[in-house]
């Protein structure tokens, strides 16, 4: 259930990369990839322009999965026109995630 927030990356670029990213994520994450959320964050950067940045929030799946996701994001966004991409991972804790009011980590 990864959640990706794209900063300083045009929505057209994310849309162009989306099909290939979802195919990659399906290979990397298996069925969990179907629950991936893509968000293009519209912000005003000071100073402008800012650098392309992707923030990935997900449950811990180990460094191999994280590395594979980072490689996929870098490759696919570069193919879609980004010259450089920074990526940061935020580890979500199951006990801190609620679905319909119930914590997943209970």
Question: Care to describe what's here?
Answer:
34% of the residues lie in helices and 26% in strands. It is of the alpha/beta class. It has a single domain (3-94), classed as Macrophage Migration Inhibitory Factor (2-Layer Sandwich). The strands form two sheets. A four-stranded mixed beta sheet has the order 2-1-3-4, covered by helices on one side.
Mean pLDDT figure: 94
**What structural category arises from helix and sheet content?**
alpha/beta
Low-confidence stretches: none
Number of helices: 2
The gyration radius over C-alpha positions equals 14 Å
CATH architecture: 2-Layer Sandwich
Identify the CATH class: Alpha Beta
Number of domains: 1
């Amino acid at each position: 259930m990864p959640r990706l927030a794209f900063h300083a990356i045009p929505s057209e670029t994310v849309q162009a990369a989306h099909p290939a990213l979802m195919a990659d994520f399906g290979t990397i994450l298996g069925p969990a990839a179907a629950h991936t959320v893509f968000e293009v964050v519209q912000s005003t950067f000071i100073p402008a322009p800012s650098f392309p940045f992707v923030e990935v929030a997900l449950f811990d799946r180990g460094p191999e999965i994280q590395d594979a996701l980072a490689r996929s994001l870098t490759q696919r966004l570069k193919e879609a026109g980004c010259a450089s991409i920074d990526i940061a991972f935020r580890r979500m804790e199951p006990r801190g995630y609620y679905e319909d009011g119930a914590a997943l980590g209970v």
